[in-house]
Amino acid sequence: MSVMAGVAPREPRRERLRRWWRGRLATPIDAPLPQRRLFLIPTRFGLGWAALVVVLLLFGINYQNNLAYGLAFWLFGVGVVALLRGWLNLLGVMPGLRLPREAFAGGEARLGVVLRARRPRMALELHCDGADAWLDIDEGVGEAELALPTPTRGSLALPWLRIETRWPLGLVRVVAWVSHDAELLVWPRPLEEEAPTARQGGADEDAGDFAGLRRFQPGDSPGQVAWKQWSRSGVLATKQFSAPPRRERWLDYDACRGDPERRLSVLCARVLAHHRAGERFGLRLPGLTLAQGEGDGQRRRALDALARFGPSTGEGAR
Amino acid sequence: MSAPRPASRPALSDKMAPFADGRRLDGSLLRQLFIGQCLVLALHLAWMPVWLLALALAVGGYRWQQWRRGWPRVGVVMRIAAVGALVLALRAHYGTLGSMDALIGLLLGVYLLKLLETQDRRDARVVVMIGLIATAVAFLHDQGIPMAAAALLAFAWLLQSLVRLAGGRDRRQAWREAAWLLALSAPLMALLFVTFPRLGPLWSMPRLDRASTGLSDQIAPGDIAELSRSAGRAFRARFEGPDPAPGERYWRVYTLSHFDGIRWSRATPEQLAATLERPVGAFVGVGARSPWQAPATARFRAELLLEPDSRPWRPSLGAPLATGQAQRYLADGTLEGLTALSSRGLLRLDSSGAAPAYPDPAGSRWHRLLPVQANPRTRALVERLWRESGGDPEAYLESMMARFGEASYRYTLSPPRLVGEDRVDDFLFDSQAGYCSHYASAAAVMARMAGIPARVVVGFLGGERHPDGYYTVRDYDAHAWVEVWREGGWQRLDPTAVIAPERIEQGPQAVEEGAEAFLADARFSALRLREVGWANRLRLGWERLEYRWQRGVIGFQRESRRSLLARLADGWRAAWAHLEAWLPGRGVLATTLGLAALLLMAAGVALLARLGAHRWRLQQDERRLVGALQAWLAGRGLAALPGESPAAHLRRIAPRAGPAGRALNDCADDLERLAYAPLEAPERAVRRRRLSRRVAEVRRRLPKPKPRRGGGGAGARETGVSS
């Protein structure tokens, strides 16, 4: 991946050249891999195979042995056909990405890669930033997950995807680079506080009384959907409960201790805890206040705000 | 591009079931490699030391146990010790390591031992590569059809194991891919095989030396009878022009001109030059034409397919006159190659069909030399016959041959042994039973005693004519006869013809006496089944195939390549001329245009066929069919909503689709029934056909969308239909 490592020179000409070269090299995502973006690189075994053909040919010449000639030519032909079939194995594959829904710093993000093709394809290797996976395409689609390490919080620009195949004999590596501008927002690493704050007792453990139905909105928990109602009427509705008045919480950056990252981690853990408990909460960060809310939407908004916050915000994005 | 190798991640486990990305080979792949080794070894089986089989079993067994029971890996010391033991064993077996056989043994041994240290994909590929080399080396032993077929099997096996190594999931997939590779590359291989220029050897390589059967240099009495026990093939010959009559098929191989009283032996040109103190060039000439006799006297033109032999002899029907390549023409009227044949070779030969018509430069005295004391009774007989014929050599030779016919001589392949000092006496007067070399020897001695230059010629007589028109000459066709120098030319005398004329006409199998010796060493030869009709036909069919293979594939050398290419070029020219005559217009341009038009038409037909196949496939699959309809509807602004099922989509737009509405509803019904109802196959087919008709109806009847006005229906996706 020296292609991507060779960054940094400031001269506009070199920058332009680099951009041109990268454009020449890579295929945009969600497009079939075209002929001109497939690169054939012989492997060591392929070079050995070529040497073997030469050796067998010399053998045939020196011993005037026609079957050895035939074997040498057949090996040569097999090499050529393997090259062609390897190339066809990657040609026209349409890569697509499935970004992970959530990723915390210090863990790994499971980046889904979906490859589509009409013909079946064999033994495709995916490489991205040190992670790799191996998949076949059967019946038009093949999926694999790449475990990308996410060391730091913030917006993470994913490196290019490299798809390659050594099918069918391993003589040649057919490589395609896939460019994309997918960014991954890495949430802070959740950090549980040592002394858990005193939680209110089991007084209002029960979720509350049924209060009625409202129209289903995307994002509602499947557990809340009135499935019986749906089976009768065909209309999706969400059950609403009259939640007992809960203490509304404010998570405050200034109320935490420690360096900024630690504070963000603590806040992250609290957001998760409040969400699990089904509580309403709001978030106060320096320069940003998130109004109180609840549910998955609120959780996501809060965690995104934590991920984007502060000095390390600009680092991940290039 | 310093791409990290996929194998660089730590191995997941020792026994990974699929060889997806781990470094280690699992048991099934090791088994594949081992079977491949066994197949390659089988190619060498008849020529290699048998204990290599035990080595194969030991190595395979160890790896198996290692995989099954977790035996430890073989360490470096053990591996080095194993290679050392292999070298020592080969040395003990062959006496030297320098011979080609020992080198091949070393290759095979290392190939087997390599399995011990095969841990990852790279090692496995190295094993396969050595296997390919060993396959090619096996062609040094033999290039027949069975060998080629076995090698093809081994090659296919090695190829499919490479496919497995590259990520093939299962056996079927690997074999399918290997078959594709082999089939697609076969035309390329054939093209290269035909067009690649055939060069001479670039440098000399160690050769295999085989204990040769067939004629031997020094002919002791009994040698030729030994040959009659063997059914080995000596050579095959095809004549251009008339075939020789059975009595003319005397293939001269070499002459014996020195007699020591017991045995006849051969004097090579070098020996003659040393003995007679003359230059070697006086006894041998190198070239493509005989320096001794004008080629214009050639009667027969033959193409010989010679079997490999350690001696450079080339049989010739009578005196050799001209050959395709340079050969050594010996002054005694025989032919030698420049080198021995390590594999079968083709030889084009013009020959006279008769004994040489030129004197031997060794001189007539050389051909009259005899031990003075030996064989007194024969000498007395010769003197009597000479007197009776009045000193006329012709009459003398006639009466000598007649005596062989009159006396009670028997032709037998198992005569009593002669051990005395005067063996010719013993044979002529006491045992009176023998075969060709006995008679030839006695006749030559009798001629020399009368002062007539004579020599024994060893070669073959006869040969089996295959229905395809070529002759197969076998070891048991070996024969010996006499040539005497008469008035400016050598003359052939065959005393065997007097005693056993059926031997001359029909071959040694026709001789009844001592017949148990015939083919004694070839007990299971198909030749023993000559009398059984179908078996003989089978044998002849196989021989035909074999002959064509040897001549067309193995013997495909420089000349045959040139002639084949010339024939192909002629064929192409003829086809082009035919095309020019057939296509309208004149000249190259018109023809090219016509050809291009033809190609275009063919491409059009192919495209139509492809479209048809696509539609047929669509009709076979209702989901695809409806999917295509949905896509078509989407193109007219009637796309499905997200999450909407196809049937719901069709039903939703049906009320607004005007005349197509009913068809849309029917489509939805049919689709649902096909998808969910348990239907019998015939009904399913009926419904599918109906669905396909309905889809076509929808396409026909759906009203055309109103032409868009500027900004009028922008963004409204479902307003395109006049409702």
From TrEMBL, chain A:
Residues that span the membrane, as ranges: 38-61, 67-88
Key words, A-Z: Membrane, Transmembrane, Transmembrane helix
Source organism, top-level taxon: Bacteria
Database matches in PANTHER family: SLR1927 PROTEIN (PTHR34351:SF1), SLR1927 PROTEIN-RELATED (PTHR34351)
Protein's name according to its UniProt entry: DUF58 domain-containing protein
TrEMBL record, chain B:
Source organism (scientific name): Halomonas urmiana
Domain named Transglutaminase-like: residues: 428-497
Coiled coil location: none
Alphabetically ordered keywords of this record: Membrane, Transmembrane, Transmembrane helix
Keyword field contains Disulfide bond: no
Region (Disordered): 693-723
TM ranges: 34-59, 71-90, 96-113, 125-141, 147-166, 178-196, 588-609
Protein's UniProt name: DUF3488 domain-containing protein
Annotated signal peptide: none
SUPFAM superfamilies given in the database record: Cysteine proteinases
InterPro entries: Bact_TGase-like, Papain-like_cys_pep_sf, TgpA_N, Transglutaminase-like
Source superkingdom: Bacteria
Pfam families listed in its UniProt record: TgpA_N, Transglut_core
